[in-house]
Write a structure and sequence with these properties.
Strand content: 5-15%
Structural class: mainly alpha
Distance between the termini: 59 Å
Length: about 500
């Protein structure tokens, strides 16, 4: 196989995607170090800039995105073509859908490229008022969510079926490997998440791939827009030699649709250095090298970079978006991860889903319009799904932006997330039946669920009933999770100061 730019790109995409998938798969278990689990999410310059604007602070590990910034200054959008896991998924979809729409796809108007720049301006505008909601469009966060809420639960279920089948058949040569996979990579009961919004986003990305190649990367991706601006004057770029005859083959097959004038004109800021044009060129007239060494192709910058119209469009949409951000709010009745400040959570959350992924009880779920539009896709504790494990502090340890504070286990076990309250009208014990499950599972050293004996009650004399000690309750949700009544007769409410 000829080792050209296109081949190198494919190999790079496969290797980085496998690495990304391995990191995500292993992060479901508690064995890998914390920095290893959140490394992919820290590589996004978009997340770094948006959270810096929103909260005026930088979490140290987020500085690893400087590597991407430096590489973009030198080589342009090479990250999009060689590293981005969502880009690899889209390229695969393009290959599959190429049989439906034809290899090239529809040629859409050039002004659509400005949509992603407008979205970038909107994201920055909203960050100024403290909302990072558009980070859900960051390809690293989006791919992380795709793995977390859809792919891993699906493949975990398939994997458990296969493991049980192999163990049932007694395949002895591979028995040790099968047991290792079952214990280290799979869950007997896979986590369940609310994934409908992410299904819609992925369907939209696939729809764009049906219409044209790399549609998301061309028109929507705000990280791509940022990298385009950063790499505008990158010295390493597509170059033409004197052998170019202007046949137009490269223009027809360009993955990003950025060639014009039979391949003689390039929108360099949009080029992801995929090598498609060099691969198809019969004259081998396309090179990827430093500018100045070969004949350069002309570029009309004003049409394809951040124009004044695009800037004002983004600002206009951004300021109009402030209205629903401020108005769409409900009474805050959700529980947040331990130690989390609600306002800082909205400013710093990358919407990467990493905290949700590592939660051992599946208690952390996405906030889907339970409180406000600005808090969309941030983590919330749903005690009915699972309690906050008393001996776990993983969510704070792996959070790449500091939206969830990193607490020691000792401090976390004393940190109050909410306050449990018993609904006596439906509580079995208060209705005269013996239950007290809430007290049995209460994990605090001194039980926050105390026993109350109603000695003076003529009907329930001697039957114990639970009562919450508000000074000891930390709002972990064990009691609500175990309650046999539906809806639960004990409910955890958020603290007023959160």
């Amino acid at each position: 196989m000829k080792l050209n730019t296109r081949t190198i790109k494919i190999i790079s995409q496969v290797l980085f995607f496998i690495l990304f998938a391995i990191i995500i798969s292993l992060s479901y278990k508690q064995s890998p170090p914390d920095w290893y689990k959140n490394l992919p999410q820290t590589l996004s310059p978009l997340s770094l800039i948006i959270t810096l604007i929103a909260d005026k602070t930088i979490h140290p590990i987020m500085l690893s995105s400087i590597v991407v910034i430096v590489s973009t200054i030198i080589t342009g959008r090479v990250f999009c073509g060689y590293v981005c896991p969502l880009g690899a998924i889209i390229d695969t979809a393009d290959y599959i859908f190429g049989r439906i729409r034809g290899r090239v796809g529809a040629k859409l108007p050039a002004f659509l490229y400005n949509i992603k720049y407008s979205l970038l301006i909107v994201a920055i505008t909203l960050a100024i008022i403290g909302s990072t909601i558009l980070l859900i469009l960051d390809p690293l966060s989006l791919t992380s969510q795709l793995f977390t809420v859809i792919l891993f639960p699906f493949f975990n279920t398939i994997g458990m079926w296969l493991v049980k089948l192999l163990l049932f058949l007694g395949v002895s040569p591979f028995s040790d490997t099968v047991v290792f996979i079952e214990k280290e990579l799979l869950f007997e009961s896979p986590p369940v998440y609310r994934f409908t919004p992410f299904i819609l986003i992925i369907c939209f990305i696939l729809l764009l791939s049906i219409i044209t190649r790399r549609g998301w990367c061309r028109y929507i991706c705000p990280l791509g827009a940022l990298l385009s601006l950063i790499g505008t004057r990158a010295p390493f770029a597509r170059q033409l030699t004197d052998d170019c005859i202007g046949c137009g083959a490269c223009e027809r097959l360009c993955r990003m649709g950025i060639l014009a004038e039979s391949g003689m004109q390039t929108r360099k800021s949009e080029c992801i250095l995929c090598g498609e044009c060099a691969f198809i060129c019969a004259k081998e007239a396309v090179l990827y090298t430093a500018r100045g060494k070969h004949k350069t192709d002309s570029t009309n910058r004003s049409k394809f970079l951040l124009t004044r119209r695009t800037l004002f469009t983004g600002l206009g949409i951004g300021f109009l978006s402030i209205i629903p951000i401020k108005l769409i709010k409900k009474k805050d009745t959700v529980i947040r991860p331990p130690g989390t400040d609600r306002e800082r959570l909205e400013k710093l959350c990358l919407r990467c889903g990493l905290c949700i992924r590592v939660c051992p009880t599946n208690a952390l779920q996405h906030d889907i319009l339970h409180t406000s539009l600005s808090a969309l896709f941030t983590p919330q504790l749903v005690a009915r799904v699972g309690p906050c494990s008393f001996n776990c502090n993983l969510c704070g340890r792996v959070c790449p932006s500091g939206a969830i504070p990193k607490l020691t286990l000792k401090i976390k076990q004393k940190t109050r997330m909410g306050q449990a309250e018993i609904v006596r009208a439906t509580c079995l014990s208060w209705l005269g039946e013996t239950c007290m499950l809430c007290q049995e599972v209460c994990p605090t050293p001194t039980k926050a669920i105390i026993t109350r004996h109603r000695r003076n009650h003529p009907e329930f004399k001697g039957i114990p009933a639970p009562e919450v000690d508000k000074d000891l309750c930390i709002g972990c949700g064990y009691c609500e999770n175990i309650c046999p009544v539906e809806p639960p007769a004990i409910k955890v409410h958020p603290l007023e100061f959160q």
